[in-house]
Amino acid sequence: MAMGILAYTLFAVHDAFIKGIIHALPAAQILFVRGVIIVLLCMVIGRSFLFGKLWASSNRGMILGRGLLTLAAWVMYYSAGRDLQLAEMTTLYYFAPVLTTVLAAIFLKERLTLARVGAASIGFFGVIVAANPGGFTLSLPVIMVLLAALSWAIAMILMRTISKSDSALVQVFAQNLIHALVMGVVSIPFWQGMGWQELLFIVAAGIIGGVAQFILVEAAKLVPASVLGTVEYGALIWAFVFGFLFWGETPLPSVYAGAALVIAAGLMLAWTEHRTRREQMRR
Asked: What is the spatial distance between Cα 277 and Cα 283, in angstroms, rounded to a whole number?
């Protein structure tokens, strides 16, 4: 769970870099360059052996599906960010952990304990309180964020399954190779010149995002998907912290109340899972 929290914290830093350039560059171009950077990093570590391991994997279909799902989630999420307020986006997208908990019970046969359901519910309620939404209208951007949340939840389930036999490095390499190939073609008509600041931000996002993906896959080997999805709520706190530091967004009192609920949900789940594991070891 600590690895999951670290991964989502790094994703929050990654999102802050992306937010800094999302209005200057097309989302497809950003995802293409970021994907290329992560692929190159993976090849430095695993070299050309990665292609052989990927081709030999029995999970090629699921790896392809997960790559396309995460790509769709990020494209829709960042594209909707041009029209939606942060409160709306955050509230809608953080429905993903709840979906992950439900899907894990259906497809992975993970046990829906009271602690897991309770943590997911409290965490999502905390997100609503923190975001303090004034009400949603069913516009195209709203639908896009909801579909992004669904895509991410399904990708989490696939990641849990793939992690049983394929290494984290192979998964990160394959996912970003798919992103780079698809977005490379899509971004051609919309390509824009990049200054040193935009390039620096994308490189930083690529390095941080690649490390976060690797840690998240490693965590998926050790933690049930329903539990790992719940710790995703912790990134909400960092989103508001970075919003204040970099864009001068002042949190409302409701943000602190919601953050307290999110932290309480995570601590409750961590303590319950630790106690359950200790009881199982004693048996």
From this structure: 10
